[in-house]
Amino acid sequence: MEINKIYKPSKFNFFTIVPNSIFRHKDISASATGLYCWLFSHDAKTEMTVQFICGHFKDGKDAINKRLKELIDKGFLVRKELRNEGKFAGYNYFLNEEPSNSKETHRSGKNRGGKTAAVKPGPVNPQQSNTINTNVITNKRNTNVRSATKSKTPPYNEITLKAFPHFVELFPIQYKPKGENQKNKWLDCLDKIQRIDKYDLHKVYEVTKELRSDDFWQTNFLTILKFRNLDKNGIKYIDRFMLNQKAKSKPVGYSKVKGLINYFIYNNPSDGVKELGAKTKAGQLFEFHIKQLMQTDEFNELKDYVKTNK
Fold it and tell me: Are 180 and 174 in contact (CB under 8 A)?
């Protein structure tokens, strides 16, 4: 079963020939007309998700959804519901050469006369899928809620607001936040990383930059919202990534003790001063021995590091 497709009449498959009806229709926006023409330039084998469309245009997801809905409402694009063994599977979309004036909705996408029928918008909370319909369907209640959200942007501190565009630039265009709702989610995430998780956003930015250049994470870390999600061990990704960063930035002297198992801080029995010790495969080393293995500044840096991370 082919799902998530937009079909145009096969006679147009090898040419971008657009029916004049779209250009003669007065009650339609220029942007919806342009999107209709662009959809006609693809053949029926092209998988047309909202994400695919957004990846081509600089318009946000909300704008694309609005134009698609406009084409559906005008009858230039018709939605057909698909089911697999009786269960909802998704939708396909059919481009009309002429706008359909019929308001009767059929799952087959055709009315009794055999002509394609315009499809009414789906229910308020349609079952989620990865098809265009999931992203296209809107209703008056949801639109009003979205408008209210836009007008009440939560306040964020200056550091968060300045950091936001730098984080956005690390991601390809298709994964950048689209619309006020997504932007607020990213800002809220950065705010919580700084205010609740207590991390410096400058350091988090450096970690993000490393993740986006990593062969594995560049395809598995597509939004900063992942930072505050939990991994399979129940650890927040922000904690996991920042701990890994600390491990990478160990001082020079850290690796100068051979056979190291771990470092520890102990109290000198004579004066109670905190000193640096090391447990190794050959036994324990005390501060006096460790100092002999490195320069004074390397030792001081190592001791401060162990104190901070114990």
Answer: no
Contacting residues for 260 by C-beta, under 8 A, at least 6 apart: 278, 279, 280
pLDDT tens for 177-207 read 999 999 999 999 999 999 999 899 999 999 9
Q: How far apart are CA 54 and CA 115, in angstroms?
A: 30
Give the E-state strand segments of the chain in sequence order. 6-7, 77-84, 87-95, 260-267, 274-280, 283-285
Q: What was the pLDDT predicted at 120?
A: 39
C-alpha–C-alpha distance, residues 2 and 127, integer Å? 18
User: Which amino acid, residue 277?
Assistant: G
Q: Which two tokens stand for residue 35?
A: 């999107």
Where does residue 97 rank: exposed (0-12), middle (13-18), buried (19+ CB within 10 A)?
Answer: middle
**DSSP-assigned letter for residue 110:** B
Could you give the CA distance from residue 205 to residue 97 in angstroms, rounded to a whole number?
49
What kind and span of H or E run contains 79?
strand 77-84
Domains, the chain, ordered by start: 6-147 (1.10.10.10), 156-248 (no CATH), 253-309 (no CATH)
Segments in the chain below pLDDT 70: 1-15, 43-48, 86-91, 101-154, 246-249, 310
Both structure tokens of 55: 């990846």
277 with 266: CB under 8 angstroms? yes
pTM: 0.36
